[in-house]
Amino acid sequence: MRSRTFLALMIAALLGPAGCRSSAPEKAKNAGRAGAGPPPVPVTVATVTRQDVPIFLTGLGSVQAYNTVTLKTRIDGQIMAVYFREGQEVHKGQALALIDPRPYEVALQTAQANLARDQAQLNTAKANLARSKALLDAGVVALQEYQTQEATAGQFEGTVKADQAAIENAKLNLVYTRIVSPIDGRVGLRMIDQGNMVHASDTNGMLVVTQMRPIAAIFTLPQEQLPDVLAQTRKGKLNVQAFSSDDRTVLATGKLETVDNQIDPATGTARLKAVFDNKDGALWPNQFVNIHLELATTKDALVIPAAAVQRGPDGNLAYVMKDDHRIVIQPVTIALTQGNIAVISSGLQAGELVVTEGQDKLQAGTFVSPKMASPGAAPQSAGALPASPASGPSATGSSGIGTASSGGAASEPAASGPAASGTRSRGAAGTSGHSSGNRASPSHTAENLGSGQ
After folding, report:
1. Which candidate in 73, 215, 227, 347 could, as Cys together with 332 as Cys, close a disulfide (CB 3.0–4.6 Å)?
2. Does domain 57-65+209-291 bear CATH number 3.40.50.300?
């Protein structure tokens, strides 16, 4: 019995120090975990900036040739030569085809011969009239005979004038044998070949020439926007941009030419015409394009990416990162959303940092690790990241933002804190209802932002 007790004491003495050594690190580890804060939440931030913001109205348009000419023959004849290629760029006055001129050359020679004959007869009649006048004065001939000679001379004068008109008509027909381009433009697919017979009564033309430099586009806008457009046109011509069908690529820049004189009662829209230089040939007749009409420019507006605007129960809000990298939920007032930027009328200051990505993990007071958004803008310093209770000082971030955010619509974060009241918020870009055309009334925009912030 005494030996068993001694053996138990020996085992306890051997295991005691090892047990203490194994439990000490675990206790220290647990103590470290209990004292450390949560890791910073990674987010993307952008700087609140001031810039001039153009206000655009958008509409769907169709490109039209500035002038379209269907060339038809004015005379009958056979096509002797074709001087153009399909799709060729031609200039005003350039010969395109030749109709057989020989019949009209013969007609001209005939008219000239008739003129020579009748001119000789007129000269004879004038000579006889002069002799009759002398004999009438001498009392040799009767007055009736003199009047007959006078009428004959007048008749030949009329015949000579008719011959001169026939000559001019023959010369004009000779001109019509050369088909020339009346404008600078592009030739389409030809509808005649060498050797074909053409007639002035033909329904179809010989070819079509379209003027593509400049070129026009017809587009529509809602009738509610027409008063604002007319008010701005009185100050000068408005700038217009033609975008591709996906509304991403600018094809051409031009000016607003005119507004139609009536509104379509079926659609409640007004038609407008814009003109583009089209020097690079990016626009093509009957091409569908998206038209952006620059109505006005808001000077020195306070802007943020539209993705930074969230929708809370009490209105729009933004997650603002303070200098200590803690989040503050800030209510904001949006003047308008233009493309992928939002113009702020109140709630933010220039230079503040707002979160554009990662809002779903944030609430008031959340500690974040920022990454700057907006590629293509000049980077700015985001400030040093404050020391974390667990990890110590961290690396600094870099910032910078242009007019466009990295995403078109904001995410759907689970907002909390006093401003959000624990509800989930929606991206303002998805709820504002404004497209790049600024569906809000432009006059409302001018009223709020015309003088800048």
Report:
1. 347
2. no
